Amino acid sequence: MQDVIHAGVKFIELNYMNVLYLFAVGFVGGLVSGFIGSGGAFVLTPGMMSLGVPGLVAVATNMCHKFPKALVGAVKRAKYGQVDVKLGVIFGIFAEAGVMYGAHIQENIKRAFGDAGSNLYVSAAFVLILGTVGTFVLRDALKTYRPGNTDQEEKVSGIARWVQSINIPGTMVYFKSLKAKVSILFIIPLGFATGMLAATIAVGGFIGVPSLIYILGAPSLMGSATELVVAFVMGLGGSFKYALHGFVDFRLTAIILAGSLFGIQLGAMGTTYVKPFMIKLVMGLIMVIVLFSRALMIPVYLSQLSLMHTLNETTVKILSGASFAIMVFALLMGALVILRAMWRGRRAEREMVGEAATEVLDRA
Amino acid sequence: MAADYNRLMKKPVGKMVAFGIFSAIIYGALFSYQSLITAYFTRGALYAVLPIAGAFALSYFHGHFTGYFWTVLGIEAKKTAVVRPRPEVRQPVRRESPQPRLRAKL
Questions:
Q1: Using CB atoms and an 8 Å cut-off, which of residues 251-310 of chain A contact chain B?
Q2: B12 inside 8 A of chain A by CB
Q3: N-terminal to C-terminal alpha carbon distance within chain A
Q4: Which residue in B43, B55, B51 sits closest to A245, CA to CA?
Q5: Which of A11, A161, A246 sits opposite B44 (nearest CB)?
Q6: Which value, in Å, is the radius of gyration of the alpha carbons in chain B?
Q7: Over the stretch B30-84, which tens digit does the pLDDT of each residue have?
Q8: Of A308, A295, A300, A296, whose CA–CA distance to A116 is shortest?
């Protein structure tokens, strides 16, 4: 029996199936994170809870696997010149403050309305944020993809141009990814919102990456890579906070890391084969699919809070199962799109090298 | 045959094996002594350093192993991958008000 009781927390017994399941989810989550800078966590936390891991331990363990994974991904992508460390660290510090505040709000909601209230808040945040930001990101990606403008250089958005043109003396910092000075006063709310979202739905990158791209004006590749630095800073602070109370199940962290470090290396390499709009496309697709998953759960929580008629047990089971299945589908679909894009990119490169070699031989 | 051998020799097989062994030792120790490790790693307070240090150690050893693993398999980043910088956005020019000059005619 492998139960270790500490501070009222029960840690699960591990078997081969649990290990394989966490390894596989870790791999796919890592692949997506390496590519778009975030993601994966939204399946890992409920995935661990479905194995019987208590909610708080699942969140803490997920957080503790996130920062070393983000570190490996950031180092890898820094080799390709895609990371702006200064922007990531500054953004990450304010995101950390957002995590603390977001966790505090969560605790208050849980105390006032119980688990159902807390879950309703999380799902509503998912639907609202993914509905607006996800649709915007997906539309932008499709706008580039449909008319075949994929080879064109990315344009800085109007908002980003305005943000970069504002000069507030004493607050201006130069960022290499933006090739411009930006007031730190713009970074504070963006970082804070990213942290709050990370504390609420476990994926701060769904706000962080679009903010870096559309509001600050970073190119997609640099925005998604810099988010890995943000995730590292945020994850390190958050993990330490949870570890102080003994909530991290390091065995689960290690198993998830075993898979996710394979995935994140592959995802990071994948970014060198694709055009920038692919980052937006994958992110937008995942966000919009996950939105439906969470929307399915809203009637369940409303019924638990007696805000609508009570749903029977079978309906609750069907809705919960469908919601989880859609979430897994979102992650798998993102992974497949990445692998396909990478495969095509590698084939195109090989063909190009082959043609060049033939040309040289012909000349000779 | 010789070309294949040379290509294999260029790949970091030794490094992959070395980091793989370190990684396997960490995982082996973790699961052989899981109750003891979990007991210490979840004590909280100053012991909070343990899971953080463990995560860093895994990211170093297992991270290097996974990196070399893909390289040995021949899966690498695109050789010509370069991030194209965007044109610089014009910053507003700071206008300095001209200083009044006093000219004294003597």
A1: 251, 253-254, 257-258, 261-262, 265-266, 268-269, 271-273
A2: no
A3: 72
A4: B43
A5: A246
A6: 29
A7: 999 999 999 999 898 899 999 999 999 999 999 999 999 999 998 888 876 545 5
A8: A300
Contact partners, residue A198, CB within 8 Å, separation at least 6? A95, A98, A99, A102, A204, A205, A234, A238
Inter-CA distances, A63 with A99, A125, A330, Å: 11, 19, 21
* Residue A341 pLDDT grade (very low, low, confident, very high; cuts 50, 70, 90): confident
Quote the CA–CA distance of B54 and B58 in Å, as a whole number. Answer: 6
Name the B residues in 52-71 with CB < 8 Å from any A CB: 52, 54-56, 58-59, 62-63, 66-67, 69-70
Where do we find the tokens 């969140």?
Answer: A59
Q: Which residues of A touch B51 (CB under 8 A)?
A: 64, 239, 243, 248, 250, 253
Residue B91 Cα, gap to closest chain A Cα (Å): 5
Q: Which of A203, A198, A222 is closest to A95 using CA atoms?
A: A198
| The residue to which tokens 């210490």 are assigned | B40
Instruction: Quickly tell me which residue has 């294999």 as its tokens.
Output: B8
ipTM rounded to 2 decimals: 0.83
Q: Residue B30 and residue A250: Cβ atoms within 8 Å?
A: yes
Cα–Cα–Cα angle for A344, A348, A349, rounded to 5 degrees: 120
The Cα A248–Cα A35 span in angstroms is 26
Kindly give the residue spans of alpha helices, DSSP state H, lying in A13-165. Answer: 16-36, 41-50, 55-79, 85-129, 135-145, 158-165
In chain B, residues with a C-beta closer than 8 Å to the C-beta of A243 are 41, 44, 47-52
- Which pTM does this prediction carry? 0.84
Amino acid A67: pLDDT: 93
